Amino acid sequence: MKIGLNGQRILTQNPAGPELYTINLFKSLAKIDSENDYLVYLDREPDKDFFEELRAGNTKFNYKVVSCERMWTQYGLAREIIKNPVDVFFTAVHTIPMIKSSRTKFVAMIHGLEYRYSKNYKNPINRFKIERPIKYAVKNSDKIIAPSQATKDEILKRDWGVSEENIDVVYEGVSDFFYKRDENEIEKVREKYEIGNDFYLFFISTIQPRKNLPNLIRAFSQFLRENPEHKNTKLLVAGKKGWDCEESLEAPIKYGIEENVKFLGRVPTEDLPGLFSGSRGYTNVSFEEGFGLPLLESMACGVPSVVSDIPAHREVGGNLPIYADPNNIENIKDGIFEIMNNTYNPNDFIERSKLFSWEKTAQYTLDVLKKAIEKI
């Protein structure tokens, strides 16, 4: 096969969810597949080191810069694929060209439909602009990949004219970089982020309403009041500021625990395993997730978790996390109490995390690309 890959997002300076997914997938495809030819489409010249890493074990990975000042996907990329078709084109950024070559099959990865929690979703015009490219990709791709059964179910609920058989669930993976770190490394991140020797819970994500931080902080404040022996326990919040983050940032002051909640901002990836490993547990009571990669990373580091009782978290964590109703403050507080007062076997979480790997993600994605080509 000649496989085209949308690489536009891998050039983002501070890669987040979809970008990190794409980068990890490309690296793993290069590692497992030496039979097929790959062409990564970019909108500008890349960092050569990245492609040298890909080609170190697989010389069949190449890239092409598609120059286009406006509407890169709908004009520049579409024109390139029509002029020089590939057997199958894969994208993980929720959009495909509207003008397509019949000689190329299209596969789109839909990370989730959490856009209904976005800032502009209540406005009908903005909702149309947000939803239209995703809906088009779902209806007009030869195959769809979802990162969880939860996301597949949400797509099918939309009644967008796609059959259940046309959507394949392919779980994301966890990097080998995430593993339980020793006390020396944990001490280094404690010093770096001025945590001291206190117990702490760890949260990581972009700060936005969907992540439900105000309810988490309120529940944490109740836990501290009812359990004075834990009065010095911290909640560390890692992640950049997203839209409408003011309520989350002000919540510690509102509930009188500003000394117990520490906003770390965006944390370098190399610090995350140490922060996970040193915590009493990971916590995230978000309203909706497409997959839940931080939960998986926390398990790989051998720590327990308190997470919202939503389908995506259940798929990743199985029966290991403490699940809480994201709308029930008492329920979240009780989960925090349980994680702070019980002991857990790190190996239980580590073994569960081994069910997921980027190599598996790459292999299953490759299988879907093959099915798209074979589809009549």
Provide a descriptive summary of the structure in words.
It is a single chain. By secondary structure, the chain is α/β, with parallel strands linked by helices. The chain folds into 2 domains: 2-173 and 357-374, Glycogen Phosphorylase B (Rossmann fold), CATH 3.40.50; 183-353, 3-Layer(aba) Sandwich (Rossmann fold), CATH 3.40.50.2000. Helices cover 42% and strands 15% of the residues. The chain is built from 14 helices and 13 strands. A 7-stranded parallel beta sheet has the order 3-2-1-4-5-6-7, with helices on both faces. Strands 10-9-8-11-12-13 form a 6-stranded parallel beta sheet, sandwiched between helices. Helix 1 packs across helix 14 and helix 10 (293-300) packs across helix 13. It is globular, with a radius of gyration of 22 Å.
Question: What layout of secondary structure does this protein have?
Answer:
Blueprint: E1 2-6, H1 17-32, E2 37-42, H2 48-57, E3 61-65, H3 72-83, E4 88-91, E5 105-109, H4 124-140, E6 143-146, H5 149-157, E7 167-169, H6 183-192, E8 200-204, H7 213-226, E9 234-238, H8 246-254, E10 261-265, H9 272-278, E11 281-284, H10 293-300, E12 305-308, H11 311-317, E13 322-324, H12 329-341, H13 346-353, H14 358-374
Parallel strand pairs: 1-2, 1-4, 2-3, 4-5, 5-6, 6-7, 8-9, 8-11, 9-10, 11-12, 12-13
Helix pairs in contact: 1-2, 1-14, 6-9, 7-8, 7-12, 10-13
Features:
Rossmann fold; 15% strand; single chain; 376 residues; alpha/beta
